[in-house]
Amino acid sequence: xxxxxxxxxxxxxxxxxxxxxxxxxxxxxxxxxxxxxxxxxxxxxxxxxxxxxxxxxxxxxxxxxxxxxxxxxxxxxxxxxxxxxxxxxxxxxxx
Length: 95
What we know:
With 95 residues, the chain is an all-alpha fold. Helix content is 57%, strand content 0%. The chain is rod-shaped. The termini are far apart. The model has no long low-confidence stretch (mean pLDDT 79).
């Protein structure tokens, strides 16, 4: 064999080796980038936790506390309570 043929064979073998090695490196790199798939139980638990967190954040500071009445200390704005002359009369004057 002459030097050109030997150099050509070595170059082809090196290119094939680099191609195969690069493919395995790329496939392992791609697998390491994808997160592992959760099992059904883990997915169900995660969904419950996420729903609880969303509900908690959505209602934070929006709803009043349930033990209080916001209209307990409202002002009396009805003028008829102050100016009604018939509040002391026990019988109906129009009968």
